[in-house]
Design a protein that fits this description.
With 182 residues, this protein is mostly helical. α3 packs across α4, α5 crosses α6 (140-148) and α5 crosses α7. The protein is built from seven helices and no strands. The longest helix has 27 residues, at 155-181. The chain has one domain: Nucleotidyltransferases  domain 2 (Four Helix Bundle (Hemerythrin (Met), subunit A)), CATH 1.20.120.
Amino acid sequence: MRRLWRDHRAAFGAAVLAHRDAFVWSDIPWDRDDALHLRARQARELVPPGRFNVKYSEGALVEVEYAAQYLQIQHGRAHPELRTPSTQQALDRLRRLAVLSPDEHRVLAEAYVFWRRVADGLRMVRGNARDLLLPVAGAEEMGFLARRLGYAGGGAAAAAALAADVARHRDRVHSVFTARFR
């Protein structure tokens, strides 16, 4: 009986994956406007005005992930090697196929690692995984976060260095995302 259940479960799983792949990698055009509308809503509705969310703000983690995913959807039918759930692998494969330029790849890959580190640092500083809002400028918590991430110097100097890296990655990612998809 267990073997029968296991066989049915495996067959069902294979059928679900085949259905997913037929949908995702079909020749139906990707709805760019709908995807970009969803992205704009996330930035507008999930981020308080005047704040920066490491995941949802423009230039943050989701824009790196969506850039990789959008390009996977656009090119994955012709290039099955792009069909990976790993953002880092997708970015590397997109570069290898020359879908991403070396500069675009560098910007997105470096920012992906940076944003993941900052998100993990925020989780450690705050003790929870939900709040990914960057501390406001001048807040003591920004210094704690910066030191947690290995920035040198006192609280203010470390916080300033972190803020500069945040601005650099944010602006570069958003520039690549905008150039590619808007």
